[in-house]
Amino acid sequence: MNTGRTAPAAAPGRLGTVQDFLNTLHVERGTDLLGAPATAYDWLPGNDLPPPGPRALDRLRALRRELRSRCGDGTPDDDLLARLADHAPLRFAPHPTGTIRLAPAEDGHRGILATLLTITYEAQRDGTWPRLKTCHHNGCRWVFYDHSRSRTATWCAMGICGNRTKVAAYRRRQSTPR
Prior knowledge:
The protein is of the alpha+beta class. The protein has helices at residues 15-22, 37-43, 54-69, 78-85, 108-126, 158-175; strands spanning 25-26, 31-32, 90-94, 100-104, 132-134, 143-145. The chain has a single domain (15-175), classed as Orthogonal Bundle (Jann2411-like fold). Strands 1-2 form a two-stranded antiparallel ribbon. A two-stranded antiparallel sheet has the order 3-4. The chain has a two-stranded antiparallel ribbon with strand order 5-6. Helix 1 crosses helix 5 (108-126).
């Protein structure tokens, strides 16, 4: 997927799919890959689904908004998440490793909702979810994976948003009369 921005801090494994989904909203450029069926179709994993209809797009955008809020970009809404989960049917499925996993019970756009929620659930269980964060630079709001040992990263990239934030703070300090 190409969102028009390099992702300096990509999430590992399947969590990268959720990160890509969350970054279909590009705050800095004001673009939304889920804004219309054609651009949503370009993003959809595998592109083997029909373009989503209005209801599917609404649900995908609502899930994105809700998951972004759980990464620090807004206030989570548990009721909304529960309603979205009602449209994401899951089943237990054997995995080649011998374990039992959650899997989408349907194909199509409901299956995408189920897949994204399953990956999120797995990331919460294995402890990687809290490392998925929203960049603190208000003009960016990119979702990045915090690879730092201390888990305290606040910007998607120090060389981009960290620098912008620090330069702006410096300029404010210099323009303030002493």
